[in-house]
Amino acid sequence: MGLRSVLREPLLHFAVIGAALFGWYQWGGGESGSGSTRIAITGGHIDHLAASYAKAWRRPPTEVELKGLIDDWVREEIAIREAVAAGLDQGDTIIRRRLRQKFEFLIEDLAQAVPPTDEELSAWLVANPSVFEPGPRVTLRQIYLNSDQRGPSAAADAAALLDRLNSADPDAEIDLLGDPTMLPPAIDRAQARDIDRLFGPGFADQIAGFVPGAWSGPVKSVYGLHLVQVRERIEGALPALAEIRPLVEREFLTERRQQQLDAVYEALLAKYTVVIEPRHGASAASDSPSEEP
Amino acid sequence: MYMKSRNRTVLLALLIGSLTPCALADERSGVGVSGIADQAQLDKVHPSKPNYSPYAGRNYPTMPLFGETHMHTSYSMDAGAFGARLGPREAYRFARGEELISNTGQPVKLSRPLDFMVVADHSDGMGFFPQLMGGDPQLLATPKGRMWYDMITGGRGAEAAMDIIISFGRNEMPDGFPTPGTTAYRNAWSETIKAAEEYNEPGRFTAFIGYEWTSNTGGNNLHRNVIFRGDGAQARLVEPFTTLPPLGSDNPVDLWQWMAEAEAKTGSELLAIAHNGNLSNGTMFPVVEAFGKKLDKDYVQARARWEPLYEVTQMKGTGEAHPYLSPDDEFADFEIWDRANLDGSVAKTQDMLEFEYARSALRNGLVLEARLGTNPYKFGMIGSTDAHTALVAIEEDNFFGKVAGQEPSPERLTKTFLDNPETGAKIMDWEVSSSGFAAVWATENTREAIFDAMKRRETYATTGTRVAVRFFGGWDFDPADAGNRMPASIGYAKGVPMGGDLRNAPDGKAPSFLVAALKDPLGANLDRIQIVKGWVDSNGKTQERVFDVAVSGNRTIDANGRSDTAVGNTVDVAEATWTNTIGAPELITVWRDPDFDSRQRAFYYARVIEIPTPRWTAYDVKHFGNEPLPGTVMVLQERAYTSPIWYTPGG
């Protein structure tokens, strides 16, 4: 197991988060257990207070101001210890939401801390070809027959025209054939989604088996009947990673963030026993008691 | 054929003229094919082999791109309070066609992808909501901040959102409200840019960088969406312009000034799109003065320079025309919101309407041009949603509401959206309109090409349909051009597209227009194409007139240019279905102005109307089996409005 894959292990992330939180308590609060009565502020922390002040006021604090900052920090520290000791943080929606947000941001940040390698992205691309595989690209010509206008004879008209087209030169001009329409008489190297976008859903499927060069149909669209000459069909090929790397990375990271979040919760859930008690009444939708991790 | 019969005859004549005489006979006998060239033509091979592709070598747009220029996400302060949890990334993913879980936990997906989108979160308080909900101490130390927080966590988010909007309109935002320069603000703008950069895929999906400048003093809506042509590296050089003093201003003149400076600083072009004049209480399209200053050359030039488009339809109403201003236009009464200004604090009076609606603004613009040398209201049309959900879900059968609380639920048919007992302004959720889209004739799907098409106003608005509409004006279109297989080819060759200009009429000639519409492949057939003309008469007064130019079925257009017969109605409201057994899939015609006076300024735009279909309210009743309130509109006729083509004498 290489270093990179180790770094992507959710359980490791949990360990790292745990260690980080532990370290934070050690550093930030000194001996900051709820029973401790010693409050220490390090030289580094004082520098940090001074720097924050300088950033806000665009000048360093004076001696008096610095003392004020330190006094204020000490008050804050006392307030937090006493508040936590008194359980004031319990059941506070702001604090709960903020902590959850920080927890999840940490996991999400870890998910993208190590940029994915080319190998990983290539593997992802192969495993998820449909995301970037364009499918076949088709070049075609089409002749439109307005079935509303032609009525019952439309199908016969189409059949007769098809015979004539297939006995003529395949490159014969078709500009004056069929009925006038805004639909394009020719389309170049279009994907199925572009063809369907023009002629309506299912059209690309209907012409998928047409032999290139020959006129085929009629194909029914939402507009009427179409005789279609597929001129060229280029089978879709997965683009090389280099061509679409930022897009693959975007999709890859989106997926990894979600997976890691899920995996971390999954792993943590294992150490909890969750009891979901029955609701008191059908109407009490908002206060059904449940314990969640 | 689905055009007026005169044109049909001409078209047939054209076809027959170029075909073998037996073609028509074949059709009559029912065994042959009409419209077929003779064998000689079929067998003919081009000696010089021109490009196979008729599009090769052409640089005009061949397909309209559909998109959205006005999407709010959880980054907008009011959207967040209304319950939006999805951000800019989710907004782009949804528009690209991905399935998401909505703000209320429901799976949702578009019928088909869109081509482009602008996430336009409010510049004031951008990042406010994440900051508030994250428990920012400075915000929560203020009584307002604390109150909103408690309201939102207590399940009264919609109430909080309305109060935020009202406080904002009164400039009563609490300390700690994020403003440009603060960390919370910079983070939100930076994330907005990053999301657009990640999801911008030239050729496939365009993600624009933008924001909404929400001037709302006194509850009067003067909002504008600002769009960058350039990329993230450029947009990062500035932070959005806000409306709250001292950093910002609620005066559009100052926004335009900011845009000029931002262009110089970033090297990225910008444009602004105003919306909801209907909620401005007569201040969106002034003709005398604005912000206490008489309209002058500077105002009209700046407005014309920075605001090439107007958002004419969206969820808070359609603003093309108003029945009071256009009593002869039976289609003007469409999804109208005309009870008050945005927050309902001042009721509407009839004298305000003229300065709120697109058509009257286009008319007044002609007069202003004569007076001040520039037409400030020479705008093209687009539609967009203004959804505050990150979900551009405005198909009638797939409507996810304006705010998260209006996502599908049995309650939304009967709930109140806004209620001000003092003014009597009350709007119900069912009145929220499932509209609209911006359609752009761009040469390709890139930021640059779409932006450039917007600048030249080659755009149209739809109320949610993806109908394709062409509109060209020139001096020499003749009816035969309507029979051409490639109307665009003729259109660009002989005229100017929507958004363009005609000047100096040749002697004795009236402008002619080639107009065509192709139904949405997933949508309803077309009822008719109309051309709306506005002009300044010999007394200096503005006038308007609506012409039917192509109608479906066997209906006729009378000597006054109208077809009074309605297309019919196949909607089964209870089942929320309709059939395309009436109307036409495609309409095309050439029309010439019968009353043209070459000395008078004028504009012309096309309006395409679909056959009746179920409104989102009907889909709701069908799905939830609940009872709508009396008076709920259940059927509508979706439509498209093109940008005008202007005629200027002696220009």
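Residues 166 and 215 of chain A are 6 Å apart (CA to CA).
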